[in-house]
Amino acid sequence: MNTDLPSDHQRRLGRALLSLEGLSVGDAFGECFFTDRTIVEGRIAGRHAPPAPWFYTDDTIMARSIVRVLAEQGRIEQDLLASHFAAEYSREPNRGYGSTAASTLRAISFGAPWQKMTAEVFDGAGSMGNGAAMRAAPIGAYFADDVEAVIREASLSAEITHWHPDGKAGAIAIAMAAAWVVNHAGNRKIDAKDLVSFVHENTPDGETRKGLKKALDIKLTSPTDAAAVMLGNGHKIISANTVPFCVWSAAKHLDDYEEALWATVGCFGDRDTTCAIVGSIVVLSVGQLGVPDQWQSSREPLGVEALRGA
Description:
Layout: H1 9-31, H2 37-46, H3 58-73, H4 78-91, H5 99-109, H6 114-120, H7 131-134, H8 137-142, H9 147-158, H10 165-184, H11 193-202, H12 207-216, H13 224-231, H14 243-252, H15 257-265, H16 271-286, H17 293-298
Helix pairs in contact: 1-3, 1-16, 3-4, 4-5, 9-10, 10-11, 10-16, 11-12, 11-14, 12-14, 13-14, 14-16, 15-16
């Protein structure tokens, strides 16, 4: 445990845990919709929640590791986070990890340096996938009062598995979205579209930022599925095809966690990840009471009780 934690560490950690709660329920909810298309479409049309239990994926496992490092250190300590990632993968490798992440984490668990492994994937370009973004909102929640810290810590968390600049940009964008919501939750005079603008302004140049620019031009009154057509629904599993839509959907549904997830999952694509990201942002606006009790009890136990007093 780092003894040099921020004076308001408990408050910061509480926000990170809230984001993790929304992320994990969204992840487990979305994962239930990878089944027969007819069943899925019927559930969505009738707003019928899937039967319990709901099992979360690597999205939640890796986000939980981030929150644990924040609880212990008050910052992203990369070697420690890499060890958590690798240990969790070794313990439960069948949680839906992508093939690139799985091979990287497997190598790290056997002692390979994470810096070497993540920098070598895709012929040295690094991953531009959406995996760094899916786990980043708790970082923005923790460092919400410091834009530079959000950028720095989100980037540090990303590069353990996503060395490509756009993979890091996705993590920065989602962390920024979470930070914005923390700072504006409850202020009904703020235009939710300002969320998209803020994220766009603070996301590094690249394809994800270009997608966020497109999202700025889509009215929040537009149907969610129409936005997904224009921005992507995560089906390519890359940041640029996932993050702009998730930020837009979160902004559109900022006051309604339940509808945010129904609308997001209705766009199909990488639905566990899109629902995880949207849930991790919107929960910071509505609070834990905004997440249906049935949904929280349907999700498998999160296992973070010890962190609440960290």
